[in-house]
From TrEMBL:
InterPro entries: PHP_dom (IPR004013), PHP_domain (IPR052018), Pol/His_phosphatase_N (IPR003141), Pol/histidinol_Pase-like (IPR016195). This is PHP domain-containing protein. Residues 3-75 form the Polymerase/histidinol phosphatase N-terminal domain. It comes from the Bacteria.
Length: 290
């Protein structure tokens, strides 16, 4: 089976609607897809409806959707993301908690805009809000808005000059702790997975500390396969997974079609780790066995 447990729609910083994301996943022959928008589960129901529409009468669905979310946390001045997989999207406590995260995002967006205005970059918030549409407003929307307003040449430049840590319009987020995020996910019936650990701008010493604390806080698993991961870093993540008895996950972290990242591509886990889905029941497998 082709399994991808990390993807985004336009309900956070992805560019595709849930329906468009589903169509692309089907085209890429993905069997299981987790939709993990930042701090929101708003796209899950639409995605599942899109799968139903694409399923022929009397046939099992070609794609199974895992209800997920990517929760933002703060840890020693690092922004660390925790995936919640198989969360209950009808859990009212969980929805209220995610709403708190959304409020923090909105407050941060206002502060970012104030700093941009002081730096002489005007009108960015309105444009960023339009780009975000129904979704959560993120720094990615600010970067895209600045490109459209010709304030910078590309999104990377927006982060390097204004939005990145220590830059003129950077605002330190007030996210929850790793422990809180894990608790939220567990309370909603899900599994907590450390997202893209190979992407954090930290030394190996700090990465080891992060994984150790995540495991100590009863985190369930870690992405050991994700995009733009070197063989050396991948082996380190595999070793850390086994060292701390964590389950292994893999995900493309897909946001939009590009030449570097694709749904379901090159995500096979090595045989010497235990997949996070090892005790899941898949509808396709049930249909084939019946």
């Amino acid at each position: 089976m082709k399994i991808d447990l990390h993807s985004h729609t336009y309900y956070s910083d992805g560019l595709l609607s849930p329906k468009e994301l589903i169509q692309r996943a089907l085209n890429m022959q993905v069997d299981v897809l987790a939709i993990t928008d930042h701090d929101t589960i708003s796209g899950i129901a639409e995605a599942r409806d899109a799968v139903k529409e694409s399923t022929k009468p009397g046939k099992p669905p070609r794609l199974e959707i895992i209800a997920g979310v990517e929760i933002s946390t703060s840890w020693h001045n690092f922004d660390i993301h925790i995936l919640g997989l198989n969360v209950d999207i009808n859990d009212q406590t969980f929805l209220s908690r995610l709403a708190e995260q959304s409020q923090r995002r909105d407050e941060r967006a206002l502060q970012i805009n104030e700093k941009l205005e002081k730096a002489g970059v005007h009108g960015v918030l309105d444009k960023a809000q339009k780009l975000a549409g129904k979704g959560q407003i993120t720094r990615a929307h600010f970067a895209r808005a600045m490109v459209e307003l010709q304030a910078v040449k590309d999104a990377d430049s927006a982060f390097k000059k204004y939005l990145g840590k220590g830059k003129r319009a950077h605002v330190k987020p007030k996210w929850i702790s790793i422990e809180e995020a894990i608790s939220w996910i567990h309370d909603a019936g899900g599994q907590a997975v450390l997202a893209h650990p190979g992407h954090y701008d930290m030394t190996t010493k700090w990465l080891r500390r992060l994984v150790a604390q995540f495991a100590e806080a009863k985190g369930d698993g870690m992405e050991v396969i994700h995009s733009h991961l070197s063989p050396v870093k991948r082996q380190l993540l595999i070793d850390l997974t086994k060292e701390h008895s964590l389950l292994a996950s893999s995900g493309s972290d897909f946001h939009f079609p590009n030449r570097w990242t694709e749904l379901g591509k090159n995500l096979s886990l090595p045989k010497n780790v235990t997949p996070v889905w090892s005790d899941w029941t898949f509808a396709q497998a049930e249909a084939l066995s019946s």
